[in-house]
Amino acid sequence: MTTRTVDTAQELAAFLRTRRERLDPQDFDLPSRRQTRRTPGLRREEVAELAGVSIDYIVRLEQARGLRPSAGVVEALARALRLAPHERAYLFDLAQQRPRAADQPATAAAPPLARLVADLSPLPGMLMNHRYDILAWNGEMARLLLDFDTLPPARRNAMWLCLMHPQMRELYVDRERVVREGIAHLRAAWAAHPEDQVLAGLIAECTARDEEFARWWAERDITVNGRGHKVIRHPAVGEVAVHFEVLMPLQDPDQRLVIYRGADEASRSALDRLCAR
Fold first, then answer.
1. Does the structural domain 111-276 have CATH classification 3.40.50.2000?
2. Structural domain boundaries of the chain?
3. Which of 2, 72, 175, 240 has the greatest count of CB atoms below 10 A from its CB?
4. How much of the chain exceeds pLDDT 70, in percent?
5. Above 90 in pLDDT, residue 210?
């Protein structure tokens, strides 16, 4: 499959259409119209009315005809479409109305952060960039998930491993939710880093090789989870439920520190046994 970076005009058009079609007209105080609705969601003229722009403007945006909406218009569209905060941020990224970092994406762990990951023991910890490349990890995380040292650096990517690695494919009890949330994060990162060829290549490979990824990617769900819950099916200690936190250092905002904690007494005991092995 050909690798491509983000065509922001096309993606903006598709995103606006999908969000418009997901809305329920009954949730809006709009004038009643007699004609039967042929498509789901709001009509273009209704979105135009709610956003305070012309119908032609909405048509041109949804047809990717070269418009670059101002920050004010993007905000009006976000309100009209009732976008969640992470969806609003995605829309601003697509419209290229948010400042972007000039530095290249991190491909190695900042030394202070690598030391911090090691110091997190006995809590499992790892460091990733926006692509889900795993840059550093401690022994507890390796015992819980996978010995990343056995992999070539190019394959130390959490999304690729979850889709392609036999051990990681079976790791999560609620695999669909975990993968869908990961895809939703990856799409947000894709819009925020439209020139990242490596990220575009990862998405192209996953789309070509995994039917579920391709189907869920096409749904254009967006989310950025700073914390959450997973249940891991570990071959040595059984099921382990963990809470996770994702922290972004101010000095290195492209790097994400991920920390796992046992979610209950049984899981904490399982982690203790695992770390003692």
1. no
2. 8-94, 111-276
3. 240
4. 92
5. yes
